[in-house]
Amino acid sequence: MKVLVIGSGGREHAIVKALKKSPKVSQILAAPGNPGIAQEAPCFPIKVEDISALIALAQKEQVDLAIVGPELPLTFGIVDEFQKAGLKIFGPTQQAARLEASKVFTKNFLKKYKIPTAAYEVFSEAESAHQFLRDQASRKWVLKADGLAAGKGVIVPITSDEAHQGVDRILVQKEFGPQQLVIEEFLDGEELSFMVICDGIEGLSLATSQDHKRLFDNDEGPNTGGMGAYSPVPLVTEELSKEIMRTIIAPTLAGMREEGSPFTGILYAGLMICKGKPLVLEYNVRFGDPEAQVILPRLESDWIDLFEAALSKRLSSATPRWKNQSVIVVVLAAEGYPANPKKGDVITGLDEAEQTALVYHAGTSMQAGNFVTAGGRVLGVTALGDTLLQAREVCYQAVNKIKFSGMQFRQDIGKKGMK
Ligand code: AMP
Ligand code: GLY
User: Fold this and answer.
1) How far apart, in whole angstroms, are the C-alpha atoms of residue 50 and residue 70?
2) Gap from CA of 154 to ligand 1 centroid (Å)
3) Strand locations in 69-205, DSSP E?
4) Which of 134, 172, 250, 289 is most buried, by CB atoms within 10 Å?
5) At a CB cut-off of 8 Å and minimum separation 6, what does 54 contact?
6) Strands in 275-376 per DSSP E
7) 93: Cβ–Cβ under 8 A, 6 or more apart, which residues?
8) 71 vs 91: CA distance, rounded Å
9) Residues near 342 by Cβ (< 8 Å), separated by ≥ 6?
10) How far is the CA of 378 from the centre of ligand 2 (A)?
11) How far is Cα 90 from Cα 80, in angstroms, rounded to an integer?
12) Is 9 within 8 Å of 289 (Cβ atoms)?
């Protein structure tokens, strides 16, 4: 099989590496890819949102299967367009991708199908949102811009002033574009990413993982795209996993069928576990990044078998085998990330780190024969171990070999998983 991987981050590098292990895959192409991916597969400089150019590439190269990493092309309808052109592609249709593209759609959907989530109200006008916050001043709220905002459209205000400013940022200054505002009850609990591969009818849970969204240790500092992850997560017992499948995933898949937009692809539920009970914070319609970097290497069996089973609605009989090992990824971020990541700093020590760990590229580029920083999250250093403790040791030893000016990373990735 010839497989095209669409995207340019650490997640796509992990997809490429995972597919390389498949005996069924004869060639991998990537678009646009990144300098790390380019070491393993030819990369074509096509933007992920340039769907017609991606179709032309898939046709010219006679690609047998395309796999989409990021949400943007999914919400633009890349799956619908590939299918119209007679090309096989793994991911949800544009209608199904509304689960990530619109928080208003998702909250209304969750309410309609009685799927546990935080209480909420939707606002289009600032004054009524301010009034709501004044009326409900004794409770804590979270503010969310309706549409895609590259992980930045959620404001968790500490003070009432911040909450009112947040309303204005979303509805008056329109910081995230012309958007509706969702005001949602603040939930206190343990956050969890739960990923499921879906064939439109059935969902099969993948290995568990937990992201670390804040920039600094002990979950302090600003929110980021994710500073690291580990798998498996001891918090997710067999029992909790069954409850998530029963109360959240199954009714979501049934509801999406009912809505005429069955979900095929990776469904990522961002959950809050409150007093043992799972509630949906958000849906994403693709692998998490950096969660993919720890889940993909944990599959012992072939990813292609799973993707193919999903595309032919055979997931109910799929039997993935997971490694009985722990995996951790530590993200190395550029100076100034997340507000203003600096570019162009020379990266050293990659070869040394790669002796013991997998190093996924995310925001790198090549300059005069050197790898340099070119994005917020620069690299993801990943290690496997028989225990999480062992994986952490190997991972952080490798992290310490890599250097670039202003490099930021968390020292406490995976610590929660060892309690
Ligand atoms: P989201 O993009 O919806 O996952 O939100 C980004 C982050 O904001 C989440 O990972 C949580 O840490 C936080 N968050 C979102 N919604 C809530 C909520 N209702 N209660 C508490 N924290 C939340
Ligand atoms: N790590 C969070 C996400 O992929 O959305």
Assistant:
1) 13
2) 7
3) 89-90, 120-123, 141-145, 154-155, 181-185, 190-199, 203-205
4) 289
5) 4, 6, 31, 46, 48, 66, 73, 78, 82
6) 277-284, 326-333, 358-361, 364-367, 370-373
7) 77, 79, 80, 83, 261, 264
8) 10
9) 334, 335, 336, 373, 405, 406
10) 15
11) 11
12) yes
Ligand 2 pocket test, candidate residues 75, 103, 211, most atoms within 8 A of CB? 211
Give the sign of the dihedral formed by CA 412, CA 414, CA 417, CA 419. negative
Find the residues whose C-beta lies inside 6 A of ligand 2.
Answer: 211, 225-226, 284, 288-289, 291
Ligand 2 midpoint to CA 321 (Å): 24
118 lines ligand 1 (CB under 6 A): yes
Low-confidence ranges of the chain (pLDDT < 70): 150-151, 419
DSSP classification of residue 69: -
Give the number of the ligand closest to the Cα of residue 227: 2
Residue with tokens 């769907």: 51
Smallest CA separation from ligand 1 atom 7, residue = 154
Question: pLDDT by residue (tens digit) across 126-155?
Answer: 999 999 999 988 899 999 999 887 667 888
What per-residue confidence (pLDDT) applies to 177? 81
Q: Are 210 and 191 in contact (CB under 8 A)?
A: yes
Task: Give the residue whose CA is nearest to atom 5 of ligand 1.
Answer: 154
Give helix 10-20 / helix 303-311 axis angle, nearest 10°. Answer: 100
Residue nearest to atom 5 of ligand 2 (CA): 288
